[in-house]
Amino acid sequence: MTLPLLAELRAAWPEVRLGAMARPAVAPLLERCRAVETFIASSEKSWRGFRRATAAVRAAGFDAAVVVHPDFVDTLVVWCAGVGVRVGNGYRAYSILYNRRVLLHRSPSTRHEIEYNLKYLEGLGLTVPAEVPAPRLEVTGEDRAAARALLARRGVGGEGYVVVHPGSGGSSLNWSPRHYRSLAAELGKGLGGAVVVTGAAEEAELASYVAGEGAGRVAVAGDTPLGALLGLLAGARLFVSANTGPMHVAAAVGTPTLSLFSPLRSGSPTRWGPRGNVAAVVVPSGYACARCPGERCQHFNCMEAITVEEVLARARRLVRTA
């Protein structure tokens, strides 16, 4: 969701050296972003990590820093590193550490996260674009080769497959595993080709359950380094998931996405929907919640109101449209 901001900075100032500080796990994504030249690992919330990140930022000699996602430790890093221009959200207790404050309330979720991030351009004296650019990620030949090798090890050809990602890391309400399992079976029958179930290493059991034992359905959770995942998503006919990070990656490489969203305001598709691709979003109808009380709600889990048949029908239309 920060890639369009980086692209706008590069377009406005083609001669500057543009760096990004983030968790090491996302380094491969930034390596595939043409706008970024320098990567610095974030502090990882430890004293040693804080000192390392501060030293790296100071040594790089940056003239300005934008703290996109409000975070006290990252803010302290750029302040201690002596960065001259520090742009950040003006509605935080530590906003005094910024000398260019952008007043930004994200909680209403009335705009897309990309638009919220682009608002920081104003702190650098730049104009926010009228049309919201979509995130774009380059997929290398090595990425595609890694994906083909991964699929070949599982006996799957490199074309005509669908990717299902049933996990969400607990970041949002999700569909039940049994519904994902039923959908995977029906997608294999109805669309032809293989169904590849992805996930993090800790979601291997979930992925295996969703894939089931039918022919043409394989689980690869925990076996997809980021490069291989990019290649896998770029080659898919369709990507199906809840509101989760890989959904945005699929969108950024141009793969059609079918996304299941909860009715929670903080996780609404208005703010978090996929951008830049052929997409469809399914939200359980009849609900609108500011926050989820969990099992105390008489409708918990409202995501179960979404039927397999409904998702399958949207998947078929999406594949025909793409």
Written account of the structure:
With 322 residues, the protein is an alpha/beta fold. The protein folds into 2 domains: 3-124, Glycogen Phosphorylase B (Rossmann fold), CATH 3.40.50.2000; 141-321, Rossmann fold. The chain has helices spanning 3-12, 27-31, 47-60, 72-80, 113-118, 141-153, 177-190, 204-211, 226-234, 245-252, 269-272, 308-321; strands spanning 19-22, 38-41, 64-66, 85-89, 100-102, 162-165, 195-197, 217-219, 238-242, 257-260, 279-282. The strands form 3 sheets. It has a 6-stranded parallel β-sheet, with helices on both faces.
Q: Tell me, what is the CATH class of the largest domain? A: Alpha Beta
Number of helices: 12
The third-level CATH topology of the largest domain is: Rossmann fold
- The helix/strand class is alpha/beta
Could you give a quick summary of the protein structure above?
This protein is α/β, with parallel strands linked by helices.
List the helices and strands and how they pair.
Layout: H1 3-12, E1 19-22, H2 27-31, E2 38-41, H3 47-60, E3 64-66, H4 72-80, E4 85-89, E5 100-102, H5 113-118, H6 141-153, E6 162-165, H7 177-190, E7 195-197, H8 204-211, E8 217-219, H9 226-234, E9 238-242, H10 245-252, E10 257-260, H11 269-272, E11 279-282, H12 308-321
Parallel strand pairs: 1-2, 3-4, 4-5, 6-7, 6-9, 7-8, 9-10, 10-11
Helix pairs in contact: 3-4, 6-9, 7-8, 7-12
Summary tags:
three-stranded parallel β-sheet, single chain, alpha/beta, 35% helix, Rossmann fold, 322 residues, 2 domains, 13% strand
